TrEMBL record:
Domain Alpha/beta hydrolase fold-3, residue spans: 28-243
InterPro entries: AB_hydrolase_3, AB_hydrolase_fold, GDXG_lipolytic_enzyme
Keyword list, A-Z: Hydrolase
Entry keyword annotation includes Hydrolase: yes
Gene3D superfamilies in the cross-refs: alpha/beta hydrolase (3.40.50.1820)
Organism: Bionectria ochroleuca (Gliocladium roseum)
GO MF annotation list: hydrolase activity
Record protein name field: Alpha/beta hydrolase fold-3 domain-containing protein
Length: 280
C-alpha cells in the first residue's frame, strides 16, 4: 500500500541542544470537511515551520467521505503516523521521540484523534509532545446544522446546501461510536492528551463552542490535579472559519500572520523543552 506525503525539510539553519541532533517531526493534516482537500493547501505554513523550527514537516492526506466513512480516515492517519515513527531516523534524519501534530478543520479532528493511540500518549517514547489545531472540528456527535451559531454569523449560511455532505464522514457511525474520542476528540481523557495544546480559534464559527468547552474542561481538570492548564486558546473573535485561507484582499495578511506567528513560536518552544533549538 502506498500513501502520498509531502515532506518539508529546511537545510539552511543550525541546530543546538541535546536532542541527539535528529530533527523534530511535525505532522500536519489538511482540512476539507472530510470530503476533499489536499496537502498543498497547508504548504505555506508547513514550509515556514520547517524553516523556522528545523523540524521535518510531513503533510498527510486521508481517504475522503462519502465513499469512506468513520473510522476509515483516522485509521489511515494512525497507520501513517506509525510508519513515520518507525522510519523517521532512516528516511528523514528525524527523531520519533520528538513528535508534534497539527491540523486544519477536519484535519484538526484527526490530529487530536490520533493522540488516542497508546503509542501517542502517556509514557510512550513516541507520544506527541504538542498539538496545534486551526479551527479544529472536535465535536461530531452533532450534525453541522445542530451546532450553536455564535453572534456575527450570517442569518443565511451560504454553504447550508452542503451541510448533509459535510456530515457524511460521521453520520453512519454516530450512533455506534457516540462516545468515541476518535470520532469526537473533545471527549478525550486528559491523560491521553499531549502536555501542550494550542487552539487557534475564529470567533464567527459554529465550531467556537466545542473548542472553548474542550479547553475549559481540560484546563480545569489540570488545575484540579495541581498542574497548569495545558490548552492555550488563540482567539480571533472577528474572523470566520476560513479566514486563514482567504485572499489578502479579504483578510489582511497581518491578521492571518498573528495565528501563524503564534503557532510557529508554540512549536519552537515545545521542541526547546525537549532539547532542540534551531537558528534559521
Amino acid at each position: 500500500k502506498t500513501a502520498r506525503v509531502l515532506v518539508y525539510k529546511h537545510t539552511g539553519g543550525t541546530a543546538t541542544g541535546t536532542s541527539r541532533q535528529l530533527r523534530p517531526i511535525h505532522i500536519d493534516i489538511h482540512g476539507g470537511a472530510f470530503i476533499g482537500g489536499q496537502s498543498e493547501s497547508t504548504a505555506p505554513i508547513d514550509e515556514r515551520v520547517a524553516r523556522e523550527t528545523g523540524a521535518v514537516v510531513l503533510g498527510l492526506t486521508y481517504p475522503f467521505a462519502p465513499e469512506n466513512v468513520f473510522p476509515t480516515a483516522i485509521d489511515e492517519v494512525d497507520a501513517l503516523i506509525q510508519y513515520i515513527t518507525e522510519h523517521a531516523e532512516e528516511r528523514w534524519g528525524a527523531n520519533p521521540e520528538l513528535l508534534t501534530v497539527g491540523g486544519f478543520s477536519a484535519g484538526g479532528n484527526m490530529a487530536l484523534a490520533s493522540t488516542q493511540q497508546p503509542a501517542r500518549h502517556g509514557s510512550s517514547r513516541t507520544a506527541f509532545k504538542g498539538c496545534v489545531l486551526f479551527c479544529g472540528v472536535l465535536e461530531l456527535r452533532l450534525s453541522p446544522w445542530q451546532k450553536p451559531r455564535p453572534e456575527g454569523m450570517p442569518d443565511k449560511d451560504p454553504v447550508a446546501v452542503l451541510m448533509p455532505l459535510f456530515d457524511a464522514y460521521p453520520e453512519q457511525a454516530r450512533k455506534k461510536h457516540f462516545d468515541d474520542p476518535r470520532l469526537s476528540p473533545m471527549l478525550a481523557a486528559r491523560e491521553t492528551l499531549p502536555p501542550r495544546i494550542l487552539l487557534c480559534v475564529p470567533g464567527i464559527d459554529i465550531l467556537l463552542e466545542e473548542q472553548m468547552t474542550f479547553a475549559e474542561r481540560i484546563n480545569e481538570e489540570d488545575r484540579n490535579a495541581g498542574e497548569p492548564g495545558r490548552v492555550e486558546v488563540f482567539l480571533e473573535k472577528d474572523q470566520n472559519h476560513a479566514y486563514l485561507e482567504l485572499p489578502d484582499v479579504i483578510v489582511k495578511p497581518e491578521i492571518k500572520e498573528r495565528a501563524w506567528n503564534r503557532a510557529v513560536a508554540f512549536l519552537r518552544d515545545t521542541y526547546a523543552l525537549h532539547g532542540w533549538t534551531w537558528t534559521a
